[in-house]
Amino acid sequence: MQGLARGFMVALLMSAFARPVSAQDGAGVLVPVPSGQEVRWIDTISDAPGPGGLTMRFRFLAPQIGGEGPLDADLAATDMQALCDEFALPRLPVIGPRPAQVIISLSDRVVPFGETDEEAVQFFEAYSVVNGLCEWELF
After folding, report:
1. Residue 9 to residues 6, 13, 21, 96: CA-CA distances in angstroms?
2. I want to staple 27 with a disulfide (CB 3.0 to 4.6 A). Which of 23, 37, 59, 135 is the partner?
3. How many domains does the chain fold into?
4. Whole-angstrom Cα distance, residue 57 to residue 67?
């Protein structure tokens, strides 16, 4: 009986990580970054596989990357590294499969996942988790 209950709990935890986490779950939280720009968490997508298998996408709203005097790509890359190290890593599942890749995205406006917006400014970076650290990958 204990094995069945334990299996049910693992399945329940896995289903919780398989769905997008969004505004209803606390999104919109201000997340500090090295550049000092205002960055807010939009959501986390884990049910859309990437090229290497399980991928977790952490999406952030960063209005300054597209406005007047836009933030440059180098500062955005530094911010995305910090978001991976300090925001994404602590939120990766500790039970079940570990993601093969973590993708951090910054967007100057909210764009629904999988849709395009020609007006939007977006930056994406991909990372592998190696020895508990985010290691940048060529995207």
Report:
1. 5, 6, 19, 11
2. 23
3. 1
4. 24
What one-letter code names the amino acid at 138? L
CA distance 37 to 50: 28
pLDDT on residue 34: 96
What is the residue range of 63's domain? 2-137
Tens digit of each residue's pLDDT (9 = 90 or more) over 58-78: 999 999 888 766 678 889 999
CA 39-45-51 angle, to 5 degrees, is 115
Pair 51, 57: CB distance under 8 Å: no
| Residue count (the chain) | 139
Handedness of CA 43, 45, 51, 54 (dihedral sign): positive
Burial per residue of 95-114, b for 16 or more beta-carbon CB atoms within 10 angstroms, e otherwise: eeeebebbbbbbbbebbeee
